[in-house]
Amino acid sequence: MTSEVVTRFAPSPTGYLHIGGARTALFNWLYARGRGGKFLLRIEDTDRERSTPEATAAILAGMEWLGLDHDGEVVSQFDRADRHRAVALDLLETGRAYKCFATQDEIQAFRDAAKAEGRSTLYQSPWRDADPATHPDAPYVVRLKAPREGATVIRDEVQGDVTIRNDQLDDLVLLRSDGNPVYMLAVVVDDHDMGVTHVIRGDDHLNNAARQMAIIEAMGWPVPVYAHIPLIHGPDGKKLSKRHGALGVEEYRDMGYPASGMRNYLARLGWSHGDDEVFTDAQAKDWFDLTGIGKSPARLDFKKLENVCGQHIAMTDDAALLHELSDFLNASGQTALPPAKAALVGQAMPVLKERAKTYPELLEKAHFCLTDRPLDIEDKAAKALTDEARQMLTDLTPQLQTATWERHDLEVLLNSFAEQRGLKFGQMAGPLRAALAGRAATPSVFDMMLVLGREETILRLDDAGVAA
User: Fold this and answer.
1) Which CATH superfamily is domain 6-76+232-302 in?
2) Residues 6+ apart with CB under 8 A from 188
3) Does 383 qualify as catalytic in the annotation?
């Protein structure tokens, strides 16, 4: 019987949740959720100078917005320092680690001499096999007795087998001279204690894996399945940085991208399932596997992101989309929609969500629902309201009083009205858009009329007519 899949996301709380970190979290979440396993969250806060509660809160908020729920409590690596220390002391007690009394000056002198002689500068401590009776009463670090012969093979699900000669690896420091455990030890102990079966992380950690495996094997623990995923590059193929635009997931949230679209886009950033570009969470969980991850860095493509997000907005249930819109307004510090306006937007949602790529675009399309009489008409729209156009709106109003308020009947009425005046309906559309929405770019005139209803439509046309 196969054991339960357990993955983890382990960010350092030194800033926001980076888009690359978000993708790593997503891959771990998809892999675990698709196999009925567990997805755990660990905050690697051992760097006390750079770790902040605000950064931890930002990471948790980013995870929540993305909908990446985790199992169990959030684990603080710093809180587990005693456990990490105990493992190092166990290795020391059993001879798999040793006390190294070398000073920084001595280590530097060794490296300088090695460099001058053309030898490897990898430090080899003279204390590795020293008799404890010769130990001085002085500060020391605890180093792992790493293997010096042979090679370490990282069997990676993405990179393939990666072989590193053991003479290229140093005796890793486990405990500093102040007795504090190092990050490399903490990661190994935490992954083991949390039961992590699959370590899916950025390929910048690939070299760390060889050193961490030395600790794992010294402890006699099972080696997890490794999958080191390529980093994300900007559109220019260079490492992602601020010059490429938004880096933190909260920036994407505040720009109004839907979380479902972000999940879809991030999943496709370096992973593929045939030619599928747009898919649901259920499909992603079902399809996601490590073999679909490419070896080359993925490139961030904002046009593709917008396209995917637009399709997700179109796919979303109207009521759910209204709820998401409300969440967006709240998260971005904007005023909530009054109940009456929210009801109108909800009624208009089938029209609004077509071709909107973000929530701000959707809100702009919904302007006709959100504005109040008398309308503030933008300059471009106002140009359509010539004296002739205003007279036309005034003449149209009585006919609307008795019209059947259904799309087909309204289309017949307005087209017939235009024809009687020797116009095409397109020539009427500009003044009607200006009168109904105060904008030159709006949803269909008929859609707006149906959402606004007879009374409000006529009042707005009256406002824009010759009497205005």
Assistant:
1) HUPs (3.40.50.620)
2) 212, 215, 216, 219, 221
3) no
Instruction: Please provide the DSSP assignment of 203-221 as one string.
Output: GGGHHHHHHHHHHHHHHTP
> What digits encode the pLDDT tens for the residues 229-264?
999 998 888 887 777 766 789 999 999 999 999 999
| Residue pair 139/177 in contact by the 8 Å Cβ criterion | yes
pLDDT in tens, 263-319: 999 999 999 999 999 999 999 999 999 999 999 999 999 999 999 999 999 999 999
Q: Where are the domains of the chain?
A: 6-76+232-302, 79-185, 316-367, 379-464
What is the C-alpha separation between 339 and 234, in angstroms, rounded? Answer: 42
Q: Which residues are annotated as a binding site for ATP?
A: 242
Catalytic residue among 99, 238, 239, 242: 242
**Fold exhibited by the domain 379-464:** Arc Repressor Mutant, subunit A (1.10.10)
Q: Which residue has the tokens 């109108």?
A: 344
- How many Å is the maximal CA-CA distance in the chain? 111
pLDDT confidence band for 2 (50 / 70 / 90):
low
Cis bond before residue 374 (omega within 30° of 0): yes
User: Which pLDDT score, from 0 to 100, does residue 312 have?
Assistant: 98
Domain 79-185: which CATH class?
A: alpha beta
Which pLDDT value is given to residue 27? 98
* Residue spans of alpha helices (H) in 35-119: 53-66, 81-93, 104-116
Report the C-alpha gap between 433 and 368 in whole angstroms. 9
